[in-house]
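Troubleshooting: if your tokenizer reports a length mismatch, compare your output against this known-good record of 444 residues.
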Amino acid sequence: MATSNPDIQWSFSQVKGTVDEDISEADIISAVEFNQDGSLLATGDKGGRVVIFQRHIANKLPCATEYNLYSTFQSHEPEFDYLKSLEIEEKINKIRWLPRQNSAHFLLSTNDKTVKLWKLQEKEKTATGFNLRDENGDRLADANITALRIPKFKPSELVVEASPRRVFANGHTYHINSISLNSDNETFISADDLRINLWHQRITDHCFQIVDIKPVNMEELTEVITAAEFHPNQCNLFVYSTSRGTIRLCDQRQNAICDAHVKLFEEPEDPSTKSFFSEIISSISDVKFSNSGRYMISRDYLSVKVWDLQMEKRPVETYQVHEYLRSKLCSLYENDCIFDKFECCWGRGDNQIMTGSYNNFFRMFDRPGKKDVTLEASRDIVKPGTVLKPRRVSSTGKRKKDEISVDSLNFMRKILHTAWHPKDNVIAVAATNSLYLFEGKSVS
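Known-good structure output:
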């Protein structure tokens, strides 16, 4: 790990989304993901739509990075399971980009039950001069076809066409919470509450069930799967987290069915802090491997933990995200906020970590410098290049200047989904129906 690391000064770049007070449920962002080189940024919402932005670099702007609308398409539609009399929401749970192989882009998107593979392709030419139909696509009468013509391509306005290539359905009984691509670029996993399936990208009619934690008697169920991810460069390894605060590392070389793990990462519970809410707040909502694959981070309700794959007994680092909420757990339980699922992500290297909080706050942790900062995604900042001021929350009666009282936090304004550009200090933060983009510059 690096011993010195320059501080990063974050400034406002852009915000996408309407400013309306009355926010439609369908417009709430539910997934954010950069592609492998950061040139495209995809968001999914509760209405089943995927919106993609393309990066534009202009040195004359206050912020050198700008993302403009590239494509929008309807990924999933609401469905009804007549067998179980259940409505299947169109909400996009996860988006994952496939490595680019040609001029087209491919991504996976999933709702609660179905994973879809989408192809995005630019078209700047249109075919004209057909024999059997006119320029509008209508079929010509046989009497009007008097000669054989050779169709030609003519230049046209750029159109980005999104088309579904494959649909991976009927693989899950319970709600899908994760999808993760394998480093072999051929397979991926999808995880629901009790099972993890392994799919091949070219095969849609069957998958392999590699993890099944469903007990014979459902009354004996003690935990559910909350997240799963493949190792970034070892195609045989993957991890999954549970609602009991454990992370299991599985190796497909040892067993085809990985119900038995090779490593169990779990922190012993401190008896002094045990309470009625201990089990709820220890549930892991997200787990991510570091870019090098040596570490992983897990997010529970109050903290982010860094784990070394070589040490199972305890995390090597623990960062408190909003410890000041520990005294508010009772009211958070009553309004169901205690069940919010916060995501976390790594920076470009293995040195920075980001995750969300309430009041549109998001937290940044610098591992080498042992520093942390709280920043806010706010509509009050409208000028690109404006430097973000650190925010502080006071949990005591007396609060200093520029501090905000924990009692005045807005728990309806929350940041659950964040993403960090794979190569640059550019971050995307989803706050309800708005997508904020911030750019960081190193300062000594």
